[in-house]
Design goal:
Layout lengths: L15 H21 L2 H7 L1 E9 L3 E4 L1 H8 L7 E12 L5 E13 L5 E14 L5 E5 L1
Parallel strand pairs: 1-6
Antiparallel strand pairs: 1-2, 3-4, 4-5, 5-6
Helix pairs in contact: 1-2, 2-3
């Protein structure tokens, strides 16, 4: 009986530093879109079809539509978020990467007060068939 071995092919045509720059560019475009088109639209646009986000009380929200619905809630209508990656790493094959860094959410309440939340984010990015980057975990 013949034995067939399958090997995963890696594309090493780009070096890791180039790929890190691509991911940083995606991160900054994602952040910019939250201000220009709203948080729900940005989280939807940059999500992989099977993306998952973890939010308060360890709640997992799955899929692009679920993520968009989550961010369309009243709580995020008057919110602004800023973040900057402190670290970007890339897989050996260059098809996955992750970032982490600090974020600040500013949410304006109905009475006009602004509440600020600070923390650390962690995002896993996946290269798409069109070479764009979408997050699969946030």
């Amino acid at each position: 009986m013949p034995v067939v071995l399958l090997f995963a092919a890696c594309d090493h045509s780009k070096n890791k530093e180039e790929i890190k720059k691509e991911i940083l560019k995606a991160e900054k475009a994602f952040e910019r879109m939250t201000r220009e088109k709203g948080i729900a639209e940005a989280f939807y646009y940059f999500a992989d079809e099977d993306a998952v986000i973890k939010r308060e009380n360890d709640t997992l929200i799955s899929g692009k539509e679920g993520i968009k619905t989550y961010y369309e809630s009243k709580n995020y209508k008057n919110a602004v978020v800023n973040w900057t990656p402190d670290l970007i790493q890339v897989s050996d094959c260059g098809d996955l990467g992750y970032t982490y860094g600090k974020y600040i959410w500013k949410i304006m309440s109905d009475n006009g007060d602004t509440v600020e939340f600070k923390g650390v984010f962690h995002t896993v990015w996946k290269r798409q068939d069109d070479n764009s980057w979408k997050y699969v975990w946030d």
